[in-house]
TrEMBL record:
Lineage top rank: taxon: Bacteria
Pfam families: ComFB (PF10719)
Entry protein name: Late competence development ComFB family protein
Length: 111
């Protein structure tokens, strides 16, 4: 096991892949009422990931174990929630993390 760029090689957060895959699936529906620019897609992903548990895996067996219908429903629900939230508050990422107060960050996460 080695650490490269502050990441442990050989393990990763499967939830990131599940969220991004679901978001890309939804983007393919070509909804005109929502912005899916790269900035909004990152905001949507971050919003959903902050509300889902991390799922670190190191093997294909681990991926298979956590990829199931119940997890898919949970991911889809959070991605849809994130899309709605970011559509109402677009381009939040234009503001850097250092420009937020601690209370603003907790308020944002708690919504």
């Amino acid at each position: 096991m080695t650490i490269n760029n502050n990441r442990v090689e050989g393990i990763y957060n499967l939830m990131e892949t599940l969220v991004w895959t679901e978001l890309e699936r939804i983007v393919q529906t070509e909804r005109d009422d929502v912005c899916f620019c790269s900035l909004c897609k990152l905001d949507i992903s971050a919003y959903a990931l902050n509300r889902l548990p991390a799922l670190y895996v190191s093997t294909q067996e681990g991926e298979t174990r956590f990829t199931n219908l119940e997890m898919d429903k949970r991911v889809t629900g959070k991605v849809v929630e994130a899309i709605k939230h970011i559509a109402e508050h677009p381009h939040r990422a234009n503001r850097t993390m250092t420009e937020y107060t601690v209370n603003e960050l907790f308020d944002y996460i708690d919504k």
